[in-house]
Amino acid sequence: MVVHSQTKSAWNVIGQSLGGKYKICRVPYLVMDNQELSDRNRQEAFEHANFINHCFNNSDVICSSLAQIISAKMAAQQQLIQLLYSQVVDLTMMSKIELGDDVIAEIIRLKSLINE
After folding, report:
1. What tens digit of pLDDT does each residue of 56-96 get?
2. In this structure, which of 3, 42, 68, 101 has its CB flanked by the most CB atoms within 10 Å?
């Protein structure tokens, strides 16, 4: 919930869950001599407070969505790694490229870490 402060030029973001009805944050804004600028500052602060409120009260949904995005990116990354690895193996077997001992040792080390 977003409410205006009774004593300051700021919006307060208040928790809504049981046991969590406390001020999460304060989003202040500048009051200017120019009313139009003051109104714009107040509105912008209100929008920021609403965004913070949304994120705080929907963190489970946000984290779930983020986990799905990360999972999809990791799967694509793994497919790319597998494709490149198979290409390196093929080129090595056809004697098109030769891997140095340090590269081979690093591949073995990393594969052992992955397979632990």
Report:
1. 888 888 888 888 899 999 999 999 999 998 999 889 888 88
2. 42
